[in-house]
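Exercise 7. Predict the joint structure of the components listed below.
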Amino acid sequence: MSEEFEPKIIAFVCTYCTYAGADLAGTSRLKYAPNVRMIRLPCTGRISPMFILKALQKGADGILVSGCHPGDCHFTHGNFHARRRWTVFRSLLNFVGIPQERVWFSWISAAEGNKFAETINKMTEEIRKLGPFKQYQQLIEEMETPAKV
Amino acid sequence: MAKILAKNKLNDVIAKLKSAGIDLFGPVRDDKHSWYGPVEEAGQLALDLILTDRTLKELFFPQTEPLLKFEIKKQQVDMQEMSPPNRQRVIFAVRPCDAAGIAIDDALFGWDYKDSYWFKRRNDSTIVSIACTAADEFCLCTSLKLSPDSTKGSDILLWPTKDGKGWRVEEITDKGKEFLGRINELLEDSEDQTAAVANVPVKFDLDKVVAWLAEPANFDSSFWREISRRCIGCGACTFLCPTCHCFDIQDEGNTYHGVRQKNWDSCSFAMFTMHTSGHNPRPTQMSRWRQRIMHKFNYYPGKFQANSCSGCGRCTRQCPVDMGIVETLREISKSV
Amino acid sequence: MGALEILKDRAKQLLTAGEVKMVIGYGRGSTADRRRAIFISDEAQADKLVLDKSCEDNLAGYLVREGLLQDGKKVAIFLSPAGIRSVNVLAAEDQLNPDQVVILGFEIKGDQVSALDGHHVNGFIELVGQIKKQGLSKDREELIAKLEKMTPPERFEFWRAQFSKCLKCYACRQGCPMCYCRRCIVDRNQPQWINTSPHSMGNFEWNIVRAFHLAGRCVGCGNCERACPVGIPLMLLNQQMAAEVLSAFDHFAGMNSTQEPVLASFKREDPDTFIL
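Solution:
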């Protein structure tokens, strides 16, 4: 019996907005896909592109990076810096062939429990359609393969 | 009467070896770059190169190699050793400087700890070298008391014929004899003349250099700073050297699961001798350059009676800032 | 007078007057077409200087290596416009004091070399502004266009094949004036973000991270690609990043010595159409 592919989604979220929004989704009993693993940072300004690379290195099929809307950052301008970083890193990932459909960015506030649940659900379905990130998994497997020569 | 291997018989050689489960490796290239790689068909061999950009050592000492996999469980640690593959191979069209490099490194890899990864591959390999009929301005084998037709490290030496049809075959070792035995019917008898071996002018007096380096007072000479001013401390020369052999062991994984890797390392890197305390006994590029020269022409010969250099010239050819060992050794030789 | 004579005279004057402790320039290399960096501290040695179309390497990196400028003294250095931009970036990032750098500027156009007026980075602001207007280099437009037409999996395979050649020799990093971190990210293991091993994963991560760390800082001097012993087209990545910061933030690296680094600053109107 074949198992349906369950995407591994890693979400890097800020404490004061998106994490709180996710919390609200929970307390409102909104259903969202269990494929997501949340990693809470104080602010999106803390999110380094290294995190995204590490998630891919460990086998993530999709990555969400989410924080406060511009102007609403708990630390005033962390998300403005994050926004620039994401613009640049996204372009680089696309250029080296990591599909943009696998790395999502969003602004989700503490009041947007609905938006959080919807985003996670939508993302899980789209990544499920894309399938596992085989090309990257080949790189991972190569690390553990004995020398060929 | 000598035996000749004709170029047009190479595909038959490959087929014969394949039927005995033996792979063929040789110089291959793409539009920018050349290396020693697996060869399925004779047309893939890049036989017109003076020498490949990358060295033969990669086939014995890969730039990265997993040694073992580990799984950390509650009561025990499970380990699975990972070894080089069980494949015999013939490495064809090797340059004598590359073959000599392998022989020089045998001493180190078999010193106080016999490196099974190196020797498994050594035992599985037959090295068939081709004497050089062309050299460029960076070649310096003769300065190291080797030559374009050196047999050091080779199991067979091939001498290009004047008419370019193929090579005269010279058997060097028992392994070479075994290889010839396999392909005997593909060889022809011939009186063909062999082409002249390349002329590689001697660039410096090696004995003078070694004597100067052995003199303790010269260790602190201002010469070292002057000669290495432009060195940027990359690892290009060490990684493209047939004899450089330093490596680093890295564990990659997480709390429960991982792989132990053996990776190339370079004494040119600033962090190479960084201690956990934060002290670095070679904190300047000058001290690292000096170490490189001393290691090759003083420390290594002190232990193993061989200079750790086969004169291929890649260090100078590939250096981004036009360094390489030739200038340093020449300057020392001139000053003595 | 040719560019070499003009700049050589200037160099000699600076040394004789004791205004600079050293002149960093180009000398003859080990073959006819090679040039190398030379470090002159005495006007008698100034005749070793050469200047021609083969003087491609950006020498600015030597200004921040091994504490050259820590004694507060001045150094004169032969720099092309890319090198001058490098000094601007290094100054803007507090890695050197531009008042300590006396610029012997030159420009290579085809086979000709011309000397530039000006001796301090502030004297080249207009020149760099003009370079920005000319737009980014047309180098390899064909290859970039080909890559952009590919699907992501095809691009991934292209880069995987390129990076599989990588030896992790770090010639690219060492040759780059902007890679001055005392401990590079790849040398850190608390935690280890990037695998140091030169397998495909380690190489992929290393080259991506270096390109990212240079976004908005790379001046396109080409030292990295020339230094790479295995022929990886590194400049493609850097060009892509430079194009992105120019189109998204109107940022061009090295405009002047106080320019805000592109990823350490922001505008409220920065684009975010891709953010849900």
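Discussion. DSSP finds nine helices and six strands in chain C.
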